[in-house]
Amino acid sequence: MAVDVGAPYATRVRQALADDGMRTALDRATGHLKERRDRAMAEIDERRLRDEAGAVRRYAIERLPDLLEQLEANLIANGCHVHWARDAAEAVGVVLEIAREHEVGDVVKSKSMVTEEIGLNEALERSGIDVVETDLGEFIVQLAGESPSHILAPVIHKRVEDIAEIFRIRLNTPRTTSPAALCAAARRELRNEFLVADMGISGCNFAIAETGTICVITNEGNGRMVTSLPRVYVAIAGIEKVVRSAEDAVLLWQAATRNATGQNVSVYFSMSSGPRRRGDTDGPEEMHVILLDNGRSRILERGYADAALCIRCGACIDICPVYREIGGHAYGRTPYSGPIGAVLTPLLDYDIHAARDLPFASSLCGACRDVCPVKIDLPRLLLDLRSVVVERGASPVGERAAIRAYSTVMRRPAPYRALARLAGWLGPLAGLLPPLSTWKRDRGLPRFAARRFGALWRERVRDEEGAAG
Amino acid sequence: MTYDSTEARGAILARLRHTLAGPRPIFRDRSEPSAPPTVPTAVTRADGDRRSLAKQFGAQLAEISGSYEILEDAAEAGERLVQLVKEWSAEMGAGAGEVPEVLSWAARALPGENLAGFLEESGISFFVPEDLHDESTRARAARAKVGLTGADAAFASTGSIVVASGRGRSRAASLLPLRHLVLLPMSRIYPTFEDWLHTLRQDQALGSYLRVSGQIVFITGPSKSADIELNITLGVHGPRAVHALIFDDAW
Question: pLDDT tens, B36-52?
Fold first, then answer.
């Protein structure tokens, strides 16, 4: 059974854990990714790369308004149209207006989480515009009528046999489990879409302030198609994507791809600095850049600027033991999953409680912090968000009572001993009693040992004293 | 409420400025230095003379499923190019004497002196499109099985090349066909990205280089995807084969 991204958190997690196909696919994929990353990082000076990449991002975020103004001026000088959008509705409105002006019927998109964030596809389709996702993974997800479950590998939750079945039903592809054959079918299908589309839409990995350049990372080449073939090209960039210089962008590109997939660099790195120049053979006639806030300035305001450093490499997701069990859809109606998603999703929302469960979808093991190429202290951010949620009284009443009781017992030896003895007798039944029952509803409770540590310790001390004497 | 980009711009920038002007540091870890080096340290490494850099470039390209040959001079590279196109045409089932079109950059945009004349007499049709927004031109370009381009620079440590769009230098030639041939003079191979960026920066040419073209692309091997259970598949949207004809242009 698939995960219903609109269901409550506990339901989503239960559905995910019951989905054996999804868990097999995730297990196959995330293990490989970690191995590849480890190997690629061992080849270089990882510490220096992280120091420099982190410093480059901090520099940009500290000077965000100035760099944005510089970016805007240079984009305009390069012949681009620049639009600012405070929220999803404004950004979607701008895209629809451009589409209307150019009588756009067909749109090709390269993979972009920011367009998922603002619900762009649905809005375009409601206006009667055909939207085709051209990243292979996104294309499969679109054919299946689902949403991406990973920022880099959108269809990581599906096995090759599931994908083959989708291709058979939707594209009439003969039954096959050869990834090469499925890929070839997608190439044929999508090639024509690229050639006839009126508008290309991409996200933005980095926006270079100094030159007014939008950078897009892809391996498949769909990013190049989308930014080169249609007459109109629209790039949507979160305001935090701005960087100082080409040198910084190239550094971050290497940090992102090495950390994401273990490649030295991605196959393609497209740097667009405006529409085609006079006399150029190809390229868009118009280039639009939408600078989108949608909660990003609020992230800084709330004191979570660290989260704005993220370059979306996905390494924290692949390494997270919680993500590896429950997958991306269990994080709900958000394109951002894993540790960074658990931070970004509640912060991007006006109402921090809307995604209040997500900061708890972590074991705080610290693996995410250790792989982050820009050194975001994710466990720290998750803890801070948890305390905000608890302070605002968003945790269940029973749980708060339980934690108060726990704190009382743990600080006093006598009640602790009494309760431990009681738990030993009751065994698994202990979890059924309130307040533990509230706590236990969505958590496993370890089995109480038959003999308590205190008793074993006293015995050992007595034995050793006996042996010494 | 009607949307006004200027108003949105003002609101976003004011909000950011207000937060950044506040008394508290914005990041958790205050021990981090906030001034990064202007020139980042090279992430990957390569060194040696031009021949050695050419070999390292080739080895890196081969590592990621590309291929290469090192040739003595431009003339030899031209001969090899013609030979390859004819071989591939035969492989792709073209009839005897029938050689499909090569989607190409204009001769003046390709490296190597006197190459243009040679290619003209080769019996191969090199299609240099004028305007790919023209429907019939686009359809013709889409049928090409081989693309031919030069490269502004290449990097030995990763096997990457740089192509810039422009007059006579279509983006399509390195993107639409299944096979991409690159003519690469040795003098354009730098050890790393950082070495090249540094050279451009020192010559005060980096900004204008990036801005004069609509698009600059770094290409590192053939198009690929790992979206299906992390199986690497080549030629997803772009070329399945990238073959570099590296030639010595020292004189």
Answer: 888 899 999 999 999 99
Global ipTM? 0.96
If one compares A455 and A209, the residue with the highest pLDDT of the two is: A209
Q: Which residues of A touch B164 (CB under 8 A)?
A: none
Classify domain A53-297 at the CATH topology level: Rossmann fold (3.40.50)
Burial of A20 (0-12, 13-18, 19+ CB in 10 A): exposed
What residues of B are in contact with residue A273 (Cβ under 8 Å)?
210-211, 213-216
A189: helix, strand or coil:
helix
What's the helix, strand, coil split of chain A in %, to 5?
60, 10, 30
C-alpha pair distances (Å), B122 with each of A397, B112, B125: 83, 16, 8
Condensed to tens digits (0 to 9), the pLDDT of residues B140-171 reads: 999 999 999 999 999 999 999 999 999 999 99
Phi and psi dihedrals of B102, rounded to 5? -105, 125
Q: Centre a 10 Å sphere on the Cβ of residue B37 and count the other Cβ atoms it contains.
A: 14
Q: Quick one: B50-247 is in which CATH superfamily?
A: NagB/RpiA/CoA transferase-like (3.40.50.10420)
Report pLDDT for B222.
98
- Domain map of chain A by residue range? 53-297, 401-468
Question: Helix, strand, coil shares of chain B as percentages rounded to 5?
Answer: 35, 20, 45
Chain B residue whose CA is closest to A153 = B227
